[in-house]
Known about the structure:
The chain is an alpha/beta fold.
Amino acid sequence: MPHRLPLLxxxxxxxxxxxxxxxxxxxxxxxxxKAHEAAVVLDTHFDTPANLxxxxxxxxxxxxxxxxxxxxxxxxxxxxxxxxxxxxxxxxQGPRGTAGNAGARDHALYRAMEIREMxxxxxxxxxxxxxxxxxxxxxxRKKRFVFMSMENGSPVAGDLSLMxxxxxxxxxxxxxxxxxxxxxxxxxxxxxxxxxLSPAGRTFVAEANRLGMVxxxxxxxxxxxxxxxxxxxxxxxxxxxxxxxxxxxxxxxDDTRLKALAAKGGVIQINAFxxxxxxxxxxxxxxxxxxxxxxxxxxxGREMTPAQRRAFVEGRKPIDARWPxxxxxxxxxxxxxxxxxxxxxxxxxxxxxxxxxxGGIEGLEDVTGYPEITRRLIAAGYGQADINKIWGGNxxxxxxxxxxxxxxxxxxxxx
Length: 415
């Protein structure tokens, strides 16, 4: 009798191994590059549109992150086996109120038009995707697909009817908030103001459902995430987030919420943002040196000529050497990835490098590093079906379900 429980545990373990070993063996036999090429490789958060207005910068040219900080362009997408992604209409959270809302609206309209103009100008290489099924159709035409998303809802906060305007322009994913609270929701990195969503934020959720726009809860506070999961009739997405149980950062999500996200059909896209993976202290001397470098070059933010950009990147090297910051690597990334897969399951996990928006880690500096993720997934025992889901299938499925909710609401049919 005392031995029966241990013997039963061994039997269960042995049976599990018998079932799992063929699956692991099948995964191990996959050719990583072929497995990568077989998947629809989609990144849900490219901040690359911020580069489109750089003087002399073209998405058709091959750039080098070590020279100009950029991480996504067509030649590197081809090398990294990247088929497309969500190109972001990002608006920093500025002053709130009538004037601030108008400024945010105009900024976002301009950025959305920049994306459309890029696709139009390079129509042999790219095509705008407006529905989940468009991705495969565009790939069949030997092009890269471009979905559009909106990060931070401040452009629509003053008038939620603008959500339809941006939908008409092509936006298919939208998040209510960024680093600071907005009129729609509390941010994960600000002091709580609304207790989650504001009253307008709740209307925002309903309007996104009505339009068939995927709701993006990255950057939202925990309570705002809870409320979006509860209120949305369609699954929601975390377009670039990590796991709080791996590294405790406000931008990451705990296991309880990961499970709730998955239970409603949602997806977390694991991002490659170093500060959300490893402790990253503030170094005042470093920040002062970087500010002085920018001042000496007469630049501010992304508004740099190609020559200024190169000079800034070069001038930053001795600063990095003198005041280095800890930097995450691929092992850190895979800790988040494998943890999310274990907690939420392979139907609810994807990838985003958060490239051109602060992302990039050792071993994953730009989109050319993506095949390494596939190699590591195979080494962890994941087969082609799961790789297909993780790289694009899950995100496209969420978009398709948002479209189905829109159609059902339009016709008034119940589930």
